[in-house]
Design goal:
Layout: E1 2-9, H1 15-32, E2 36-42, E3 49-56, H2 59-70, H3 73-86, E4 93-97
Antiparallel strand pairs: 1-3, 1-4, 2-3
């Protein structure tokens, strides 16, 4: 199992609007496609920072879920253009991490 920590920079001053879009549209859509969303955060020190975490059993599951989500018509035609209007896309950072043996996220 591994996690994907996704760090985003939102267009200045639009973070509250972004969080609403994530919680009302993006996360529910991804959950409906089988994605496991572990957490969602706003950065306490950066007014435009946002972080969320997703969990995958293995690389095969990740690839299948990516295909389901990002290959769907709804994602490509509706959600992705809106996401790109909110984010500084060139600043997206994705880190894959594996929990240690005593981690509470096993």
């Amino acid at each position: 199992m591994f996690y994907e920590i996704r760090r985003y920079q939102v267009q200045p001053g639009r973070r509250d609007e972004w969080v609403r879009y994530m919680e009302d549209v993006v996360i529910p859509f991804q959950l409906a496609q089988g994605m496991s969303v572990t957490a969602s955060f706003v950065d306490e020190e950066d007014p435009d920072g946002y972080v969320w975490i997703r969990r995958f059993q293995d690389e095969q599951e990740r690839a299948a879920l990516y295909a389901n989500v990002y290959g769907s018509d709804r994602w490509r035609n509706e959600i992705d253009p809106k996401v790109k209007s909110f984010l500084l896309v060139d600043q997206i950072k994705v880190t894959r991490v594996v929990p240690t043996p005593t981690s509470g996220l096993q």
